[in-house]
Backbone:
């Protein structure tokens, strides 16, 4: 690991482990906005991690930026850090002003589309998008929309959108977002050539992969710790071979998820062109399911309670694997690429990643 | 909890050229070589092919030049290995010598052993087999009973080794056996470099469940070994075997055993692939990409002189699952009845894969034993 990665990781980890307590997570599930924690995150410059220094950002490389999200994932941080990083990355790419508070991106589902057209001296944007992370708390929403065969970035502030609350299984906001109104020229700009909606999906997927790898690593730690403490039949349950074998399976998936997140991170800035993001999201998503299942099995009934904090992580794993494309979506994409490469092109494709 | 991390694999800037060179060589060498043969790959024995690889400098790649090696990086070696396996080249003849017997000798062998044996391995002319398992000692290697006792001028060996792959074609065996007290489970074992033509050694082939003959029983009856046959220190056998296993467990042969089937499946499904088939195949491809990354990471750790025994166990366990899953998924996608003797490539390759898949999670350490090692790494034992 590079020195920067180490520093980024340690600083973020310190911040998150100090602040993100189970009480805070319970509060977040009831809808509380963690304003103080967000301010600390902003003071560290984390929302600008993925924006180059020349554009006023921090200019971390992709692997370090993804590492931040990994650490946030390990701590179940209930704030839109990944979304704000992404929004700023796209705003910078389009030359629009960066967000000065929490932000989010839209749309995040392949079927949702916004309608953008010239109107009066500016633009008119309309449309609905669902499952938008943290839309209710975002001061800025980056919307991607097509007009005249080109993809535009539109920078909306919270006054220009209406939201309707919805949640993922971890009770993180995943709201519906409604827009219908005028947008000034200063808030609309074309994305650079070749950059579009697919890139947003892929970069979102890469960051969710990082978050899953972080959460999976933490779940493994928690579960091994529990197996060493909890005694039945006169010895720690971790001494039973059946439990050991289950935990070894979990560790294998955790290792795969970690490798998957590394692959996805390396492809982060290539966006939709990166096949390693497809690989990463699909593999880590599969690991997430297995890891959550084994973790709950080993924890017994206590892990099934709202009192115990295991669920803050497992509910996120169950949710994140379905966001920005589930395993089936990315597996199919990879399978199609292999089919296009043809039988004799399969190995060269695999060996190139 | 031990460190479970897999550092990013090392990068070597010039591997693209080497890869292209290996691909061109294989394209020419294996032209017309049928899929039904390719599926055997690291179980396929072809001494001529191994000699050609030796001439190319692709065996003993990382060893010092003075012992016939080529002083190339672990990653370059990795490139050659995975290209050979992906193409289904028959590499069994030299595989074990290159993967573990050679590195063992390089590490703890005498100068004489290194000078006489290593250059011949690197030339693709000298083949080894592994004599670890016995009738009563499979997973529990510390329980070996084959014994070497000191005699005038050397050692006398009695006992039986089992499942010894290609002992019937190999020149030598690395014999793991007892040299000390039976109750000194770990300290009482040593390894010897044994010429298989010595009097008193009998090699009996054993057919596997498909009827194929690749492994053997090797019986030692009053076999006399010279002093110079001892590898490393007397009593160090256990430690030597344990460090060899990291080499045995992490390589691309641990997830590419059924790769030829995977390729034939893509060929058959072709461009008519349904979204469901693409999803199922894509998933396997995704697993392979991630395994390859983990495996290259272990190669890097070995190169840096670290001991990635734990990570190697993870790679082998995950790898065996995937290579066993490929034939299962192929069956579902093709709805065919596999037939070893079919002229249809896919049908015979699938048949071969199904009949060999049980071994993937046995050879080189069973699934349960690997998971035990992982559990120990997690601090549970
Ligand atoms: C194709 C093939 C090639 C081989 N080639 C070689 C070779 O070249 N040289 C060589 O030395 N050996 C070779 N082997 C042997 C191989 O290493 C052994 O088969 C393996 O170590 C398992 O030993 P076993 O077969 O005696 O099974 P056993 O050890 O008897 O195991 C039987 C079952 O019990 C389980 N078990 C055993 N102990 C434990 C435990 N402590 N906890 C939980 N479960 C346990 C095992 O996992 C397995 O499921 C080969 C095997 C195969 C299949």
Residues:
């Amino acid at each position: 690991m590079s020195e920067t990665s180490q520093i980024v990781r340690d600083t973020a980890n310190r911040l998150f482990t100090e602040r993100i307590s189970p009480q805070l997570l319970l509060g977040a599930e009831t809808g509380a906005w963690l304003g103080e924690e967000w301010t600390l995150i902003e003071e560290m410059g984390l929302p600008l991690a993925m924006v180059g220094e020349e554009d006023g950002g921090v200019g971390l490389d992709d692997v370090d930026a993804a590492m931040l999200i990994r650490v946030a994932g390990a701590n179940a941080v209930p704030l839109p850090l990944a979304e704000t990083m992404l929004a700023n990355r796209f705003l910078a790419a389009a030359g629009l002003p960066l967000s000065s508070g929490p932000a989010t991106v839209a749309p995040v589902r392949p079927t949702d589309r916004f309608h953008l057209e010239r109107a009066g001296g500016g633009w008119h944007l309309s449309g609905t998008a669902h499952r938008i992370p943290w839309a209710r708390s975002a001061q800025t929403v980056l919307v991607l929309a097509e007009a005249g065969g080109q993809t535009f970035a539109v920078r909306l502030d919270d006054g220009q959108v209406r939201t309707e609350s919805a949640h993922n299984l971890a009770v993180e906001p995943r709201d519906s977002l409604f827009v219908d109104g005028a947008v000034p020229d200063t808030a609309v700009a074309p994305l650079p050539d070749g950059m579009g909606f697919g890139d947003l999906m892929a970069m979102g997927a890469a960051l969710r992969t990082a978050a899953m790898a972080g959460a999976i690593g933490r779940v493994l730690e928690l579960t091994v710790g529990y197996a060493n403490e909890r005694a039945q039949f006169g010895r720690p349950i971790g001494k039973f071979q059946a439990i050991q074998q289950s935990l070894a399976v979990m560790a294998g998936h955790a290792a795969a998820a970690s490798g998957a997140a590394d692959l996805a991170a390396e492809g982060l800035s290539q966006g939709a062109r990166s096949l390693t993001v497809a690989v990463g999201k699909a593999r880590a998503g599969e690991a997430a399911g297995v890891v959550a299942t084994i973790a709950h099995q080993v924890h017994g009934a206590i892990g099934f309670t709202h009192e115990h904090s295991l669920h803050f992580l497992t509910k996120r794993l169950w949710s994140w694997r379905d966001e920005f494309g589930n395993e089936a979506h990315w597996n199919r994409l990879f399978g199609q690429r292999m089919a296009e490469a043809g039988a004799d092109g399969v190995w060269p494709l695999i060996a190139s990643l | 909890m031990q460190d479970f991390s897999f550092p990013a694999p090392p990068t070597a800037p010039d591997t693209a050229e080497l890869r292209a060179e290996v691909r061109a060589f294989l394209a020419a060498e294996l032209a017309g070589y049928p899929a039904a043969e390719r599926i055997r790959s690291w179980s396929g024995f072809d001494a001529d092919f191994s000699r050609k690889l030796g001439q190319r400098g692709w065996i003993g790649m990382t060893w010092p030049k003075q012992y016939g090696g080529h002083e190339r990086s672990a990653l370059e070696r990795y490139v050659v290995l995975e290209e050979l396996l992906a193409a289904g080249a028959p590499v069994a003849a030299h595989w074990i010598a290159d993967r573990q017997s050679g590195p063992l000798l390089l590490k703890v062998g005498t100068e004489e052993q290194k000078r006489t044996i290593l250059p011949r391995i690197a030339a693709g002319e000298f083949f080894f087999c592994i004599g670890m398992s016995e009738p009563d000692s499979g997973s529990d290697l510390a329980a070996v009973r084959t014994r070497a006792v000191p005699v005038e001028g050397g050692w006398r060996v009695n006992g039986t080794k089992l499942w010894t792959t290609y002992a019937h074609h190999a020149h030598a065996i690395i014999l793991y056996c007892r040299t000390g007290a039976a109750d000194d489970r770990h300290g009482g074992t040593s390894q010897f470099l044994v010429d298989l033509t010595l009097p008193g050694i009998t090699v009996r082939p054993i057919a596997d469940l498909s009827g194929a003959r690749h492994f053997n029983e090797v019986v030692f009856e009053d076999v006399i070994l010279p002093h110079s046959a001892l590898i490393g220190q007397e009593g160090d056998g256990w430690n030597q075997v344990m460090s060899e296993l990291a080499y045995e467990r992490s390589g691309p042969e641990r997830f590419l055993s059924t790769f030829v089937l995977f390729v034939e499946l893509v060929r058959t499904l072709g461009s008519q692939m349904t979204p469901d088939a693409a999803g199922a195949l894509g998933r396997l491809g995704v697993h392979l990409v991630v395994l390859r990354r983990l495996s290259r990471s272990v190669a890097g750790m070995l190169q840096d002189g670290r001991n990635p025994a734990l990570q190697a166990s993870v790679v082998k366990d995950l790898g065996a699952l995937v290579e066993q899953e490929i034939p299962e998924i192929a069956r579902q996608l093709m709805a065919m009845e596999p037939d070893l003797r079919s002229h249809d490539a896919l049908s015979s390759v699938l048949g071969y894969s199904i009949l060999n898949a049980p071994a993937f999670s046995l050879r080189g350490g069973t699934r349960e034993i690997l998971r035990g090692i992982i559990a120990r790494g997690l601090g549970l034992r």
Q: What stands out?
A: The longest helix of chain B spans residues 275-303.
